Automatic annotation (TrEMBL):
Coiled-coil parts of chain: none
Alphabetical list of Pfam families matching this protein: Inositol_P (PF00459)
InterPro entries cross-referenced by the UniProt entry: CysQ/Inositol_MonoPase, Inositol_monophosphatase-like
Name of this chain's protein: 3'(2'),5'-bisphosphate nucleotidase CysQ
CDD domains, A to Z: CysQ
GO molecular function: 3'(2'),5'-bisphosphate nucleotidase activity
Natural source organism: Sphingomonas rustica
Upper lineage: Bacteria, Pseudomonadati, Pseudomonadota, Alphaproteobacteria, Sphingomonadales
Keywords recorded for this protein, A-Z: Hydrolase
EC number: 3.1.3.7
Top-rank taxon, per record: Bacteria
Length: 238
């Protein structure tokens, strides 16, 4: 099994587990905690069994800085969009990525509630652009800056939950851009970045700098995923 096939297989399996957890009778914080922990256990067990020589950085596990000595590091978010998961919405995701020499080389993003897993092994073709363009934005805390950018470029806003769901909305053609400056961590965007890049989208920091992973600092402050023809225009706001 290739790295891309493994990433997609694990993301899909973890997604099915999370759908089952939603039906176990828990609610609220207990449901979200159970989802986080059970999905994390499954993902780590699979990776350790099938790629024992690789390092792992997971949101739900203590950070072992020995990963800095590895070229290959799996960067995973077992449940991206915990709030949406707990509310029974569809806009949550599972992220499985492989960083090689700091580059998001392989990735899979499962959208379990939609029955979809998008991955670098079989990236979707670039969809047709929306007219007017559409920008995804947080459904609970839409930043004024994104609202201002949308107005400046004549875009409509599409409120949505998790980072993975937002990024995959651009990959799938539901939206045209994801401009984020509110702070994220490596696990929030490594898999989405890998999939978006494989699909032919522009991916960078909001100032055009490359996305770099497996750094000691886990935070990544900002991100731009967009259709290539929008990149120059959106990078002006970085």
């Amino acid at each position: 099994m290739t790295d891309a096939e493994l990433a997609a297989d694990i993301a899909t399996e973890a997604g099915k587990l999370l759908l089952a957890v939603q039906k176990c009778g828990l609610s609220g914080k207990a449901l979200c905690n159970a989802g986080d922990l059970q999905a994390n256990d499954l993902i780590l067990a699979r990776l350790r069994a099938e790629r024992p020589g690789d390092a792992i950085l997971s949101e739900e596990s203590a950070d072992d800085l020995d990963r800095l000595n590895h070229r290959r590091v799996w960067i995973v978010d077992p449940l991206d969009g915990t709030r949406e998961f707990g509310e029974g919405r569809a806009d949550w995701a599972v992220h499985i990525a492989l960083s090689i020499d700091g580059v998001a080389a392989v990735g899979a993003v499962a959208l379990p509630a939609l029955g979809l897993t998008l991955c670098t092994g079989h990236p979707p073709a670039l969809a047709a652009a929306n007219h007017p363009p559409r920008m995804v934005v947080s459904r609970t805390r839409a930043p004024e800056q994104v609202t201002a950018i949308a107005e400046a470029i004549g875009a409509e806003l599409l409120p949505m939950g998790s980072a993975g769901a937002k990024a995959m909305a651009v990959v799938r053609g539901e939206a045209d851009a994801y401009w984020h400056a509110g702070g994220q961590y490596q696990w929030d965007n490594c898999a989405p970045v890998a999939v978006a890049a494989a699909a032919g989208l522009h991916v960078s920091r909001i100032d055009g700098a490359p996305m770099v992973y497996n750094l000691e600092e886990r935070a990544i402050p900002d991100l731009l995923i967009c259709r290539p023809e929008l990149a120059e225009q959106l990078l002006r706001f970085g």
